[in-house]
Specification:
By secondary structure, this protein is α/β, with parallel strands linked by helices. It has four domains: 355 residues, TIM Barrel (Alpha-Beta Barrel); 52 residues, Alpha-Beta Complex (Oligo-1,6-glucosidase, domain 2); 34 residues, no CATH class; 77 residues, Golgi alpha-mannosidase II (Immunoglobulin-like). Helix content is 26%, strand content 17%. Bound molecules: 1-deoxynojirimycin.
Length: 559
Amino acid sequence: MADNIKRSWYKEMAVYQIWPRSFCDGNGDGIGDLKGVLSKLDYIKSLGVDAIWFSPLYKSPQKDFGYDIADYRSIQPEYGTLEDFKAVLDGAHERGMRVIMDLVVNHTSDQHEWFLESKKGDDNPYHDYYFWRKGRGKLKPNNWMSTFGGDAWEYDENLDEYYLHLFAKEQPDLNMDNPKVREEVKDIMRFWLDMGVDGFREDVITFISKDEGLPMSPYFFPLGTGIEHYMHGPHLDEYLMEFKNDVLSKYDCMTVGEAPMMTPEKALKHIAEGDNQELNMMFHFQHMEADCLFNVWVRRPFDLKKLKRVYTNWQTKLYGKGWNALYIENHDQPRIVSRYGSERFRVESAKMLAVMYMCQSGTPFIYQGQEIAMTNCPLDDINDYVDVSTINVYNIVKKIVGEKKALKMAHYASRDNARTVVQWSDRKNAGFTTAEKPWFTVNPNYTTINVASQEDDPDSVLNFYRKLIKFRKENDIVIYGSYKEHDHARNDLYAYSRYLDDKKMLVVCSFSDKNVRFDAPEGFELSEGKLVLANYSPCGVVNNSFTLRPYETRVYLWE
Ligand code: NOJ
């Protein structure tokens, strides 16, 4: 392996993400919980993953389903207790899986005791934990808008001041410029690391430093006017470095930072390997914009060339310098087969998409339900949606395009698409709960799409994921190889190759629902390579070319 490629456990692992409320209900109250997780640890292990990332489990009023934390050191009672968490942590470790917690420190809940204190007066020691500002006469302190829609300021009559919230109004932003706040963050990190957790996914961590004086924005951007003043703020490096030097570097742990509007060039400032590395990886969003303009609510026809451009950019610019975090689904994104794949060719396209992103260099993250190719779940009535951002954005969009169209947009874009309960079986409520009714919708397609029916089917999406994760683990070329894209001009297929020492690998993915022809690039003699992964039974190669059936994928290896 080249000298600039350094092995590390966080690079070799595959991670399974749990959004606890909808994963599995262990106590029969209709809400997912830690007892449910404990009962599924063997299942998670059977996927071949090496770690679990938990979306927030902490005590929270659940206005943003846990991303509004009221107490960083206790577990949401609906999910269980700290003892239950320790049992899951031990159970995961016993099975050789690490546990990664969600660290949400750009903001707290408005029910956190710091915020409740901060409201008591501007002489309260916690007042400066948040951004409290006077209005400009009758106007708000500046023109920033929340990324969930609406103003980013909420008025408090008692204080006659406004507080900043870049997300829901129940999520006041923490003032990270206050050294006491940074000490709190470090204490929270130590608390969980000392308990034995193995790292953090850091929520919108690139938003934690705001431009001094919170200046007005000259631009209007309905979901985030002002974003240029905090998406990559002036003290970001300094604060991330402080967290690393004072805490993270003292543990054998990993970090992945969520980073909206991130580019590879900017990412490298934070994740480039070496003494100045602040985070191990970053979740960027660029590859989730192939069917939209910045935000999935602003839908555009799927553009494969845009997707390939983004992947190639990240794969080549980071190679040998930093590490990619690979994902195609999470709790904020609609289901991928309903976006980049095809519900008609659900099984084929789900397998192809899995190969497409997991055969790249980086650490793959798999979101609950992705491994069985769960689909979007359009709801008939806006009142059936539960996600705060869906409801806020719907209410704004409705004024422009009308109710019917706005609901149609929500069907495609809502985060609730990914938050329906995991479909474990074809039993009542998809086997998620024994309660009469689960807390949220069960996608009606659970009778055909569920874990139980895929377990024993060798051709299921579930077993394909298992095969793929194992293949990656057993072949360094998938993890550490360099990358080259082929046939960029084609808008029906994505082909790339990987290289490590004297080995090479070719990955071909069709994004078409028709048959398409593929001519292998020069230097790739298919008859000499081994077909190691495929989602159809093999069919002939003639003159180093073959025809791909709808959403077909093939991976060839030369060693
Ligand atoms: C990103 C999280 O992934 C999302 O679910 C949450 O709503 C926002 N950050 C605010 O915490």
